[in-house]
Each structure stands twice: as C-alpha cells, then as structure tokens.
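Rotation project, supervised by the postdoc (A.L.). Task for the rotation student: set up a whole-complex structure prediction and record inputs and outputs verbatim in this book. Inputs entered:
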Amino acid sequence: MPGIEPIERPVVEVVELTKTFANTTAVNRLSFTVPRGQILGFLGANGAGKTTAIQILLGLIKPTSGVVRMFGQDMEQARIAILQRANFTSAYTALPGNLKVSENLTVFAGLYGVRKAPEKIRALLELLEIGHLKNSLTGQLSSGESTRVNLCKSLLNDPELLLLDEPTASLDPDIADKVRKLLKRIQTERGITMIYTSHNMRDVEEICDRIIFLQKGRKIADGTGSQVLAQFQQKTLEDVFIHVSRSGELLSEEEVKERGGTPP
Amino acid sequence: MNWRRIRALMRRYLYLYRRSPPRIMEVFFWPVMDLLVWGFLYKFLVANHTFNWISYLISAMIFWDIIYRAQQGVTIAFLEDVWSRNLLNLFVAPLRRSEFIAATFLVGLIKIIAITLVLSVLALAFYDFNLLNLGLALVPFFFNLLIFGWAVGLFTTALIVRWGNASEALAWGIPFLVQPLSAVFYPVSILPAWLQPLAWAMPCSHVFEGMRDVMRGEAFSWAQFGWAAGLNVIYLLAAALFFRRMFDVAREKGLLSKLGTQ
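Outputs recorded:
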C-alpha cells in the first residue's frame, strides 16, 4: 500500500524453543527475534543453555519442540538454504592444522560456493591483517592468529548472520580487544546480524546491542546492557552475572516478566 | 617404587574399560582375529599343498586391501575432521551428508587406484605375479570390493557418530571382524559348516571365490558376480540408512557437537 513501509522480517525468529536431554532441560521455552544488523549477546553461566541454543540455531542439535526460523525459513525444512546465508565461528572448533591457511580457506570457499575465491580470500586475509599467514600451516598459528583465520572462514560467504560462540575465549586481553574491535568494525561496515555468546562481560558490554540472559535454559532478562543493569539493580554485567549465578534458584515468574524474559 | 602410585595409575587406565565395551573388545579382538584367519589358512594349505598358493595369497592380499582402503577412506576422513575439531565447521556449512560421504568415497577411490597400481607393479617385480592375468574379471572384482568397503566404512563411521571417541578403535577393527568370514585367503568350504552361511552372506566371499576360480583357469562366474553385486546393493543401502539414523540420533542427543569439539 502506498505510504506504508513494509515491516522487515527479523533475521532470526525463535518460538518456544525447548531442548531436553534425558532429564535435563537445556533450553526451556526460549523465544526471541533478532532484527537485521543487531548484535545479540547470549549471557549465562556454564550450563545455562547458550551453546545448546546456538547449536540448535545452526541445525547441529534437533530441538525437542519449538520453531527456529531464519530469513523467514524453517531451519528443519530449509537447512542448506539458511546455512548458505549464515556462518559460525567458535573458540572450540578449529580448521585442520595440517593444511595451509589458504588451503583451508579454499576448501570452505568451495563448500559455500564462493565465486572468485582466490581474490575473496586475499581480500579477507588483508581485512583481518593476516595476509602474511596465507602460506603458513594452520596448526602452527598462535591463538590470536587462529581466531582471525577462523573469522576469515566465517566471512567467506558474506554472511548475513554470524553466530559466534565465545570467540575470544583463550585469547589474551590484548588480542581479545583487537578481535572485539575487528568484529565491531566488520559489523558496522557490512551490517551483519550477529549472535554472540561469551563468558567475558567486557566482550558483551563492548559489542552487543542487546543481551539475553539465560538461566538454566530459560530467558530471564532481555534488553540493552543498561536496561539489564537497571532490571537487576547492578552496576556492571559482571555483577549481574554473579548475582544470577549465586542466587541459585530460578527467578520467580514475576521477576522474569519484569526483566523482559519468558516465564516458564 | 611406590605401589600406591602404581595402583593409582593402573586405576586410571582400567577406569576406561569399565564403561567402554569397544575398548574391552579391542583387547581380545586382534588376537582372536589373527587366530581365526591364520588358523583357517593353515587348514586350507594343509589340505591343498599342490597348487601355486603364493599367487593366491598375493592376489588375495591386493584385493583385500581394496576393501580395507575403501573402508578407511570413509572412516578416517571423518575421524580426521573429528581430530582436528573441524567437524562442526563442515556441518554448519551448506553441506549435505550425502555430499560429505560422496567426497570420502571418491577420495578413497583415487587412493585405492594408486595403491593397487603400486602393489601390482611390486608383485610383478618381486614375485613374478601379474594381476592383469585375471583379465577383464578384474573390473567387476574391483568394483564389488570397493562398494563393500564403502558400505563397511559407512557403517563404521555411523558407529563413531553415535558412540564417539570410545568407538574409534572400530575404525580399524571392523574390517578385520569381517575378514575371517570373507574367504579372503581360503575358500568358504574351509570354515565350519555353521559359519558358511554367514560367509556366503558377505559380498566379498563371492568375489574371492570367483577370483580363485579364474586363477584356476575356470570361467568367470556370473553367479558369484550376481550374488556379490546383489548383496552389495543391500549392504550399501543398509549402511546408508544406518548412517542416516545414527546421525539423526546424534543430532537429537547433541552428540555431534560433543564429537566436534573434544
């Protein structure tokens, strides 16, 4: 209709997502959407369900119930089409150490059907300031260099959505800072939507536009960093993290609602 | 020497066996398989000491390698990505399982062709054994063994997907579980009567029997070929379905991500 702008569909839509392993509910009725260009941070203690949620989004884990839609398509129905437009990097995965950096990137360029792969790889290596590592064996790189090579892999297909699982874990503060700045720059330049999990509160404070706090698989807070701080009446996200972790018991339904979360 | 520390360390190794049938199996597996294969071969040679058994053994060894390399091509390719923590990178790419399997099949095929050529040349140079004497029969023999190796590889990989690192030993063990029943070095008739139906259920038994027929100067057995090809279709289909099922179970239980980040 003239005069009315179409409402852009969120890049990620998660509805009532639940994952149960034996007697443990790792993700409990999680619902959220991520609009285009937003950096969403998943925060929570170990076992809160961050990594499980990310891996469900990537199709690596099948949900017990609920729906994951990306780019308007159902993950279970259109996995290949979705993954063509997304990418992933994690501190807990690696590229084969016995291949050169350029060889690894060429393999993944093939998997993602990247056109003019050599030029693309060269440009990305330069963007990430690791052009000199092109012919190095991936297994001989330092943690910081490996992280940047992994990032390079994750940008090969010009993803519209990037999922990052603790990308700065195992990095020293200096390199972690560089990686954060790099990610922020890439996001600004390319308008990529990102979902970011981290234990590092500084990561989340610096990078994320919005935070979802998870506790025992349940969303207990959802908002910008300052909103979450206000909701929990704490000064820093680290204080929020410690407060939630040490409170032991789940927040009450009313408390969750107050913080923008989803009561069970 | 401190007995307490020795005992503590022993406990560290023995703990592994308490919950891992594959590890327990591995302890007994190789000696039992060796005993079976070499025992049956000895029995065969004692009963048939007049013919050129060296040619039989060399061709059997080269042909067995086709099965083994085809199986390893699939399973070790998968394990390489597990060991390098690259598995998740692959399966979050727009990659179908069938594409992954096809790639491992084809890389395996290239390796097998290279290995078979090298072994054939060496056998000719050192033992005056010419594999090409088998003539055109080589082609159906080769492809039947290749397909059976792929089926075993797919089955073994499915076990690793489902049961993780604890079952890695199966990557090397499973082919040798099949070997005593496959009539590689001796005919099916040497096996005890109760094992013979099992042996005839193996596609490769028909290939090795067919190979011995041709080497004895008899005509290529279309019946053996038909059995081998038919059974191979069933085995490959069953292995593919089993792989798909185990992959789905791994997705449901979150095992894929564990396997990919260990």
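Student's summary: Residues 50 and 192 of chain B are 23 Å apart (CA to CA).
Supervisor addendum: Chain B has eleven helices and no strands.
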